[in-house]
């Protein structure tokens, strides 16, 4: 059996009881180690908690070497651990499909994900549209296809969850070209860098999917002891230090409900300013006001 086990967002003890029971009976345990990190537990912490070795699985192993992970999984139990939910945000459906093609049974043990825990910022999950990923811009690679998705979400009033890039075990172009297995230190995009990139692309596109004054919420280290929320405009958050990773951002949709706003005000430096910013932002994309048809002329 291949078990895909969600670890939850932060602590080694966030694993579910069913997940822990599965891990304890597995002969090999892999930890997916390139799309997210468990903030309050190291590899060693997990190993002593589970009472067995944990193998770190980088992108290469999962995407190109998955046969290694699946070796003998038709005869013994293998666990593939994913921070958050195994099918939340990053879906590991490819691994599931490969396992099924080899007649390996698969069981998925779910857990909390950034995709649902983000509701703790006070915005209602029902009011979220398409989630987007923001990657680190380089000098000559500044992808902005996500801009259209924000536009679509905002046009119909929905909030946008922005997940931020993580670079773990990346090689510099030079080391890659020379085949040197030297890896850069891990990098995690911050809320401020994400907001700077948002502002740069709005300036370039100029079609006002959002503006520097559009309200947003910085979400840091959700589910950990130091989790924190900050509500402000995109411009304000581009200068905000959200501290240690992991960070996410939510760009507000224009139909912010009064209860959502009340919750958000708790996270604002200046409550009255945030209220005014949210109300002003809601004017964007409003459908034209309904005008009653002209009354038909009385014919007699
Ligand atoms: C590609 S997603 C992986 C999501 C994970 N599988 C899950 O279900 O939560 C990783 C990104 O989600 C966001 N994220 C994940 N956990 C977070 C947390 N606890 N607090 C804030 N952002 C988080 C960060 O932007 C991070 O770079």
- CATH homologous superfamily label of the largest domain: Tetrapyrrole methylase, C-terminal domain
pLDDT averaged over residues: 93
Q: Roughly how many Å apart are the termini?
A: 83 Å
Order of strands, main sheet, comes to 3-2-4-1-5
Catalytic activity: 2-[(3S)-amino-3-carboxypropyl]-L-histidyl-[translation elongation factor 2] + 4 S-adenosyl-L-methionine = diphthine methyl ester-[translation elongation factor 2] + 4 S-adenosyl-L-homocysteine + 3 H(+)
Protein name: diphthine methyl ester synthase
GO molecular function, one term: diphthine methyl ester synthase activity
Pathway: Protein modification; peptidyl-diphthamide biosynthesis
Task: Give your account of this protein's structure.
The structure is a single chain. By secondary structure, the protein is α/β, with parallel strands linked by helices. The protein has two domains: about 110 residues, Cobalt-precorrin-4 Transmethylase, domain 1 (3-Layer(aba) Sandwich); about 170 residues, Methyltransferase, Cobalt-precorrin-4 Transmethylase, Domain 2 (2-Layer Sandwich), CATH 3.30.950. It contains twelve helices and twelve strands. A five-stranded parallel sheet has the order 3-2-4-1-5. The radius of gyration is 23 Å and the shape is elongated. It binds S-adenosylmethionine. The site of S-adenosylmethionine has 23 residues, from helix 6, strand 7 and strand 12. Its EC number is 2.1.1.314. InterPro entries: 4pyrrol_Mease, 4pyrrol_Methylase_sf, 4pyrrole_Mease_sub1, 4pyrrole_Mease_sub2, Dphthn_synthase. Pathway: Protein modification; peptidyl-diphthamide biosynthesis. It catalyses: 2-[(3S)-amino-3-carboxypropyl]-L-histidyl-[translation elongation factor 2] + 4 S-adenosyl-L-methionine = diphthine methyl ester-[translation elongation factor 2] + 4 S-adenosyl-L-homocysteine + 3 H(+).
């Amino acid at each position: 059996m291949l078990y895909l086990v969600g670890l939850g967002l932060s602590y080694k003890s966030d694993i579910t009881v069913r997940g822990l029971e599965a891990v304890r009976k597995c002969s090999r345990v892999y930890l997916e180690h390139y799309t997210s990190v468990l903030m309050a537990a190291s590899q060693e912490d997990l190993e002593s908690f589970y009472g067995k070795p944990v193998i770190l699985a980088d992108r290469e192993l999962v995407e190109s070497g998955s046969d290694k992970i699946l070796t003998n999984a038709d005869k013994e139990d293998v666990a593939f651990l994913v921070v958050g939910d195994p099918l939340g945000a990053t879906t590991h459906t490819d691994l599931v499909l490969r396992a099924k093609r080899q007649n390996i049974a698969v069981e998925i043990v779910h857990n909390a994900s950034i995709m649902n825990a983000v509701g703790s910022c006070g915005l209602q999950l029902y009011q979220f549209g398409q989630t987007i990923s923001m990657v680190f811009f380089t000098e000559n690679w500044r992808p902005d296809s996500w801009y259209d998705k924000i536009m679509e979400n905002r046009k119909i009033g929905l909030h946008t969850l922005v997940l931020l890039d993580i670079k773990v075990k990346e090689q510099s172009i030079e080391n890659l070209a020379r085949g040197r297995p030297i890896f850069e230190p891990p990098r995690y995009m911050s809320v401020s860098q994400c907001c700077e990139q948002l502002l740069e692309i709005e300036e370039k596109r100029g079609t006002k999917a959002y503006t520097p004054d559009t309200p947003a919420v910085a979400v840091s280290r959700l589910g950990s002891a130091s989790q924190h929320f900050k509500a402000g405009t995109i411009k304000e958050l581009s200068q905000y230090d959200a501290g240690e990773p992991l960070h996410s951002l939510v760009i507000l949709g224009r139909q912010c409900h009064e209860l959502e706003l009340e919750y958000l005000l708790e996270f604002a430096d200046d409550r009255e300013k945030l209220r005014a910013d949210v109300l002003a932002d809601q004017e964007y994309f409003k459908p034209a006001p309904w005008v009653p048809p002209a009354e038909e002329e009385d014919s007699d």
